[in-house]
Design a protein that fits this description.
The chain is built from 5 helices and 2 strands. The chain has about 120 residues and is mainly alpha-helical. It has a two-stranded parallel sheet.
């Protein structure tokens, strides 16, 4: 993603990299640390519509109250690289599985995600 942003004109100094996440929940936890360290008052979250819907739920339960967060979905027809119908189908089912996994106790959820992503 860093190389993609740089190739589209974003200065490297404006890119903050977080490499410790293994799912959307930990990605938000680590992003909050960057937001706090940088003392940002406004943050724009950009992702696919399905992912943003799930991420918005995570953020709504736990975000810095002094930070304004806006959401910008990437239209499937304008994604780069292009999204195939199979990828769209897969992502929709992946997001439903992710929603269902939140019903698990947190310790079981953490173990499962790390096992699936080979980080156990």
């Amino acid at each position: 993603m860093q190389q993609y942003l740089i190739s589209h004109g974003v200065p490297a100094s404006a890119i903050f990299i977080e490499q410790h996440s293994f799912d959307t929940q930990t990605n938000w936890e680590n992003a909050k640390k960057i937001i706090a360290n940088q003392q940002w008052k406004k943050v724009q979250v950009i992702s696919t519509a399905l992912h943003l819907h799930r991420l918005k739920g995570i953020i709504s339960h736990n975000h810095p109250s002094q930070t304004i967060i806006t959401y910008s979905p990437i239209p499937q027809t304008q994604s780069d690289p292009n999204t195939s119908y199979f990828e769209l189908w897969y992502n929709a089912h992946y997001d439903w599985a992710a929603y269902l996994s939140y019903l698990l106790p947190q310790t079981v959820y953490n173990w499962l995600i790390k096992a699936i992503r080979n980080q156990a």
